[in-house]
Write a structure and sequence with these properties.
single chain, alpha/beta, eight-stranded mixed sheet, three-stranded mixed sheet, 13 helices, 11 strands, 41% helix, globular
Amino acid sequence: MSRERVAVMVEHQAQGCASLGSPLYAFLLGRVAQDVRAAGPCMEALAGYEDAPGPDAIALRLLGGVHALALTGRAPELAAHYPSTGGAFVPERPDACWHAFRAAVADGMEWVRDWMTRPPQTNEVGRAHLLIAGLLKAADAGPLPVRLFELGSSAGLNLRADHFRYACEGFAWGPADSPVLLEDAWRDAPPAWLAEAAVERPDLAVIERRGCDVTPIDPLSPGGALALRAYVWPDQTARATRLEGALRVAAQVPAEVEAVGAADFLAGVRLEPGTLTVVWHSIMRQYVPAAEWARVEAELARLAAAGTAQARFAHVSFEPRRVGERHRFRLAVRLGAAAETVLAEARPHGLPARALAA
């Protein structure tokens, strides 16, 4: 039963990869599930994680470890099938890719087993346009300097989101020469309030950038950069391009990420007169235990209640929410103690978004 549970979890992730535009990973995980049931090398790599909860994302850990082998030249035959390493995946002839993947797992078992101990860390740059949209909404009440705090920051790349460029028809914001360009981020036209905010607030003064993560990544270290690259799906080259640009920005714009849980991190945050304190996070709540998240909500309520016209507070989130029978990934903003406003929804990687508030 435990082996079957692993296979089912892998198949579930395969469906997710297919729906999010990665035919390569959808195919490979389908074969991984078969290999698990047959007690092949993939089952050996995943042994000990049979009872892992869903948020542990064991399939993504396996994929990340194997991708790292290809990125570092340790699996050249597999690299020939990965676009991220100059190769090509041919859906009409997928068996060669699978055989190279399975061989990489078997030959690199020690590496892959070590990688399985690490939680997935994507630090998805594509979500930055939603976070910036929420920040521009929060800044609408007045041009106060911004103190930015992020929960579940990973490598802190999105703490530098104001240094990225956002552009689509009817909307442009951010440095024109930024190495990160997020374009066509809105499914239709961007919401009118965002286009107006971009004109009224062509830039923001961010005077503090701090985040937290239980296992933060240093994006300026070789190992940290490798981990971030490894968790970008190899057939999604646009995501890889955005990541490379964000790594360049990180080398120029300092930000601090503390190795601490979200609740303890927020407990140390206080509002300061003459500033707008913003707490934001994206697709991280599911990884936080329920008891700790209750503490996070209590800290957010404390900060909201403390907000004044001179020491303002905003909470910006892009997280899954149940809508009817399904989960939708939605951008929401809460200004001070006011009611929360849902502004947009998007796919988990952030692109494209659909406005829900005009």
